[in-house]
Input
Amino acid sequence: MSLTSWLANLLVPSQGRHLAPADGPNTQTFVEQYVNEENVHTYPGRRKEHVRAMEEQEEEEDGEGRPPYLHSMIAGGIGGTTGDLLMHSIDTVKTRQQGDPHIPPKYTSMSSSYSQIFRQEGFRKGLYSGVTPAFLGSFPGTIIFFGTYEYSKRHMIDAGIHHSLAYLAGGFLADFAASFVYVPSEVLKTRLQLQGRYNNPFFNSGYNYRSTIDAAKTIIRQEGVSALFHGYKATIFRDLPFSALQFAFYEQERKVAKDWVGSRDIGLSLEIFTGATAGGMAGVITCPLDVVKTRIQTQHNPQEDVSTVRSTNIQQQSTHKISPQSPMPSPGGLSGSQQRRLISTSSPSTSTPRPGSVNLDTSSVITGLRLIYRTEGISGCFRGVGPRFVWTSVQSGTMLVLYQALLRQMEAHTLMTDGEGGSIV
Output
């Protein structure tokens, strides 16, 4: 009797001995598994081999689930754009709240502001003002994002970098690559959202563009191309960590869900849960960066306010008439190249500075964070965390659910096309 058969007789229960021969394939597999597990715990060298084998198995599973780059870019572009357009009206309300130059502010709570804009300005020209540049920036931006993310993630994993670090770095690099597209479009979108309709009688934002093209031409002519990247530094300080954390959370949650379900298809409910929670958690963690970004871009300079009052008094004494084709003067009377506003760009900031909050008087994100924490505490750093959690959850859930659904549809279509081609051949 061989050593393997002897071990099998000892380890296999008595009932199992009668059901299968000692040297049968079932007992051989059972014994080999037992011996391998014992060797993993006993010998350090074999433990390393076991870990390496598990990592190779994970890489093979990742390789099996890698869609073509073109599929990822198309699915990501459609999913990301749909999520952004779905939340555009909420974005408009928050932009009005943050960029309202009136004292006291005209827009207060979210619900009252939403109904007021809809009642006075309507849906298309009011709540969905600025939707054209939003679409023109969101679709190519998300295409670049998902293409960069998949490319960098796969190459880092293939190079032996830990999966979690690859997800984190991939999201970081992807958002940086897309920022050169979405930041200029967000500047145009934000100004048109503040303006509303052309010659808006209900809200004087200081902007009065006829269309998206007119807005782009006017900004470049009067303020220069650099104005289209206003707030770029503060924007990427918030959005790069958000995207990195969002996709790191999302990939890990999907991996746990696949293991729990035992299939690559985790179902709609888990798709929604993983996408929404990944965006929500990333939004909560990066909320302090959102707060300081909003405060830097919407703070008022007292010296500028004094000069504004003086220029307003002078203009009131003059009989200067504004032509309908020129931009309306800002609430402070600024026009032309002086018409610069510290406005939020990128996805909507959900932090509205409380009345009487300290003026940061800095463009440094780190200095701003320290000042907010010192004067307002931890609650000041997480001001608006609730709305931010809701916005990022809904937007992220919509984008990622559509992304996975479109990938499955394109994969099925590819398999069907390949099968038909094979039958013909």
Summary: Residues 385-424 form the longest helix (40 residues). The radius of gyration is 29 Å. The chain has a mean pLDDT of 75.
